[in-house]
Amino acid sequence: MLANVKKEIRELAPIGIPAVLSQLAQMAMGFIDTVMAGNYSTDALAAIAIGTSLLHPILVFFLGLFLAFNPIIAHFNGSGDQPKIKTHFQASLLMALLCAPIAMIMLLNTDFILLALDIEAGVSKLAIGYISATVWGLPALLLFLALRFCNEGMFSTFSVMTITSMSIPFNILFNYWFMNGGWFVPEMGAVGIGYATSLTWVLMFFGMLVYTATAKKYVGLKLFSSIELPSLKEIKAVLALGLPVAVTLGFEITMFAAVALMIARYPVEVMGAHQIAVNIASLTFMIPLGLSQAITARVSYFAGKKERSSMQLAGNTGIGTCVIIMTFSALMMIAIPFQLVSIYTDQVDLIELASSLLFFAALFQFSDGLQVSSSGALRGLKDTKVPMVVTAVSYWLVGFPIGYYLAEYQEYGVNGYWIGMIFGLSTAAILLLRRWVVFSRDKTHLSNNFSTNIS
After folding, report:
1. Contact between residue 295 and residue 315 where contact means Cβ atoms under 8 Å apart
2. The pTM of the whole model exceeds 0.85
């Protein structure tokens, strides 16, 4: 058994490590934005925190939608159905073009949320400006996500990692340029970071497009030689898989966003400390998130080959790996909180407050890794509807209500909301792991596969 686990780790690593590095590289842009905004001004840091709290739920929803192409492509790869791989690559791009206007309209109409909350006027104005600037890059980002998850389904995670990593220096350059001004560009502060983000997204899409069109592994598939879109039935099947994933991810990110918006009513220093702690926790979360995408591809690949024992091994090994990694993350947050926070700011009060919040972040590292990896394994078996219900209950009937009660009625303040997040993530972790253990043992799930529904 141990030999099989070691073998699976060796198979998972070449896919999982680049996927993790891709997530870290993409997250690095948020990290860079936060650090550069924090060094520019406290108001800019708060504006980025509020702006991303409104931006990320919308982005994560569409990310979840396109994430469905990962297991679908992996399944067709496992079953050797090359024509279906081509049609679904093209379908992903079509969906991105159709979804882009919807995403832009949604984002441009988020300002009413800020108006409904008692947020300082100057910070609110900056946040709205930041959001408006990012809208220009949304079409390119959705097209990038479409190609990214199709490539990950073909185990081409190294290319995704390379392209996202190469975007980092451009992000830094554009941030500095647009934030501080110069070379015919006025100083724009937090708003400039929004424009820099949009431009970086455009570069990422073109990089992914060039790779997909020229890679040797895709020559035989002739992905762009002719237009061969899936049938309406197949598109409906993709949406049936992707929409629950989108909603599932949306439940978690909106809980964090709702917490951020509630904390936005507190002093700017509290909001800044919360943003720093969340950013650090988000960076560590990128590791199990990246691995979960590799787990999805591995589980779905073996489901396509109808190898149940290999499918179970892939899921169990991936989940165990994520838990071990997040245990180390928790220990790091407990051992060196001040050093981690000092990367973001040199303000003593901000460092102390953010460091205290990292203790709560350390407590939910284990649960966060367990829930996202279990969800990834279930996604490989096309099980998305029950996890959607689980996350809805965990985050919105457990996590947020407990946080709100402790913060607003028991005077725990910002700490109350973080305790609520611990309860929400822990509940999701327990229920999703149990679902995977039960679901993966059922042999009928190998015959009830993608090909029966979307071929």
Report:
1. yes
2. no
